[in-house]
Amino acid sequence: LECAYSLNSLTTENCDLNKPMVRKIAVDYLCRYSILSRSRYGQHRPILNNCFCCGYVYDYIEYGKICTAYCDSQVEDSTQIQEDAIINLPFNWGDDCPEAIFDQHHNKLDLNILEECR
Question: Which pTM does this prediction carry?
Answer without folding.
Answer: 0.78
